[in-house]
Every structure is written in structure tokens, then in C-alpha cells.
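Structure first, sequence second, as always.
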């Protein structure tokens, strides 16, 4: 059954997806929770963004609520890395601690990928031959998504680009009683140089090669459109382009092809560039940030994932 109601679950999500106007309700703030660190650590170049402990992430959310942030995208980074059979304890504990504390005050999306778990730093598991092992990868992603939902996640956000993952996760959630949990797919995700600061934060840099076998070649428009259309067909409730800045021409066409909300992820390298330029006195940070948000909206973005969401209230949104 095609369910259009999942994106109407809460007032937070309804405000986030309102098609008219622009306010901070349309912004999603990323968060990092990292196992095995004693104090929060700054993420290089990402002003006011930290690798948090499971304690300090709670304090951060408390502060963010004061700043009017309601939607979060959480990246959980475990300390142990392996090739399969991942330990999900830290992942699920972090989610359930957050949801126990904040409940329906926040909408918590969980980034769902393997690259913070795998020793290879890749988003998939490989066969001995070096080919992606689709079946094992989908199996692990399904377990990760299900454990997130059981821990109280408000939404699942697959970022891996493995073929068939959206359909698989939808099926896993549906048959386990989580039919109302929405999926926000990273549906058009390019291979990009703009993920640099993030890979430090999430401890997920590939240990060999790159991600070009699964992320989209930035030269290819058709592939980029097809990738989002396919996610919509497999049951994604929300679609996303990423990096925002290199996908600006695709947002409205994807919306017109799918009639789903399409968001833009202003990724770490985009936000970090603004921070670095401003630090050198070459740019007004606040003005530049607001400018980029307006352009995402102009291009048709329904919502924006941005490391600056917690500044929006201060900036008048
Ligand atoms: C990993 C993942 C990445 C980002 C979100 N999830 C990096 C990558 O694909 O290498 C990038 C986010 C950012 O740069 O802010 N699945
Ligand atoms: Zn990944």
C-alpha cells in the first residue's frame, strides 16, 4: 500500500514540509554521537558542531531546543569496527536515551549506513572478489534500521546508495510493526569532495579506493534523476539531493517527477567552506549562510539539512 500519511505524523514534520513560506521549521540539524570519547570535540571547520559523547549530545539538544530546532539527523559512531556482525549497542542506547529524554519535543532522523561500523570505512560489505555483497549489506542495513525504530527513531535515513535499500528497509519496517515510520532517503547522492569534514567527524573515510562504485558521478544528470525516481518507487517518503550546492539544478525536476518532498543537504564541505572563508575575514558568515539557504528554497528544496540550523533563530528565521 502506498502511504501518503507517514509524512503527517507530527506537527514538527507537518511544519517541516509546509510548501509555502520559509522558517527554521524547514531546517534539520545534524548531530554526531561518538563512542569512547571523554569530552566533546570540535569538528574541523564546522563552526559550533561537535563530536559529542552520549552525555553531551543531550545537553546539545537541550540548547538547540532553546534555539528553536525541532528536527535532527543523528549520526552514531561506534568505536569498534569490523567487517560484519556489527555491535549495535551504542547505536540503540544513544537513540533511546535521546528519545526517553525529549520524546515528541523533537523529530529524530537516524542516518542509516554501515561506513561508521566497517573496518574498510565503506558503506557496504564486500565479497572476497571485491564486488559489493548486496545481500549481506541489505541484511545489516535492515538490522540497523529496525534497531533504530525499536529504540524510538522518528525516521530512518539511508545514506549508503546500495541498490534496493529503500525497498528493503520499507519491507523490514512494515513487517515488524513500524509501518508509520517514514524513510528520508539520500536519493540523489553524488560522489563528492565536499564530504571531507564529515568523514573526520563520523570516522568513516574509506580505507582503500573511493565511493565511486556506489555514489553518482557528478557529470550525470540522467543517473541522478533516475536514482531519486527509483527511491520514490521503492517507497521513500522524503527524497534528498546531496551535496546541495552541486545538485541545485535537480531539486525541482526530481520533485516534478516524483511529487515527493525533496530536500537539500548542505554538506560539511559546503558549510565548512563558509566557516573557513569567514575565519580568514574574506566573507560575512551570517550573510553567506542565509544566502545559501535562500538559494536552496529558490531551487525548490522542501527542507534543508544544514550544520547551521541552530543559528537560524538568531538569524531571524
Ligand atoms: C556516509 C555519509 C556521508 C555523509 C552523510 N552520510 C559521507 C560519505 O558518503 O562519504 C556526508 C555528510 C556531510 O558531508 O556533511 N554514508
Ligand atoms: Zn556510508
Amino acid at each position: 500500500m502506498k502511504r501518503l500519511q507517514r509524512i503527517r505524523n507530527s506537527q514538527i514534520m507537518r511544519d517541516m514540509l509546509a510548501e509555502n513560506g520559509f522558517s527554521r521549521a524547514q531546517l534539520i540539524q545534524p548531530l554526531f554521537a561518538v563512542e569512547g570519547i571523554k569530552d566533546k570535540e570540535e569538528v574541523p571547520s564546522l563552526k559550533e558542531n561537535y563530536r559529542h559523547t552520549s552525555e553531551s549530545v543531550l545537553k546539545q539538544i537541550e540548547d538547540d531546543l532553546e534555539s528553536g530546532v525541532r528536527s535532527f539527523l543523528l549520526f552514531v559512531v561506534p568505536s569498534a569496527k569490523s567487517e560484519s556482525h556489527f555491535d549495535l549497542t551504542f547505536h540503540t542506547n544513544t537513540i533511546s536515551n535521546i528519545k526517553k529524554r525529549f520524546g515528541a519535543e523533537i523529530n529524530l532522523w537516524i542516518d542509516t549506513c554501515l561506513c561508521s561500523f566497517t573496518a574498510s570505512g565503506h558503506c557496504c560489505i564486500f565479497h572476497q572478489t571485491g564486488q559489493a555483497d548486496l545481500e549481506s549489506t541489505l541484511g545489516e542495513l535492515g538490522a540497523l534500521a529496525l534497531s533504530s525504530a525499536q529504540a524510538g527513531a522518528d525516521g530512518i535515513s539511508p545514506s549508503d546508495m546500495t541498490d534496493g535499500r529503500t525497498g528493503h528497509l520499507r519491507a523490514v519496517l512494515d513487517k515488524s510493526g513500524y509501518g508509520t515510520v517514514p524513510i528520508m532517503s539520500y536519493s540523489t547522492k553524488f560522489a563528492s569532495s565536499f564530504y571531507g569534514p564529515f568523514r573526520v567527524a563520523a570516522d568513516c573515510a574509506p580505507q582503500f579506493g573511493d565511493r565511486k562504485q556506489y555514489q553518482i558521478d557528478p557529470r550525470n544528470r540522467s543517473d541522478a534523476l533516475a536514482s531519486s525516481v527509483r527511491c520514490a518507487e521503492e517507497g521513500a517518503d522524503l527524497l534528498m539531493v546531496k551535496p546541495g550546492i552541486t545538485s541545485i539544478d535537480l531539486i525541482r525536476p526530481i520533485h516534478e517527477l516524483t511529487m515527493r518532498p525533496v530536500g537539500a543537504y548542505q554538506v560539511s564541505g559546503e558549510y565548512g567552506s563558509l566557516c573557513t572563508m569567514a575565519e580568514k575575514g574574506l566573507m560575512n558568515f551570517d550573510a553567506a549562510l542565509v544566502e545559501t539557504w535562500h538559494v536552496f528554497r529558490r531551487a525548490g528544496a522542501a527542507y534543508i539539512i544544514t550544520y547551521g540550523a541552530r543559528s537560524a533563530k538568531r538569524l531571524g528565521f
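Margin note: The longest strand covers residues 27-34.
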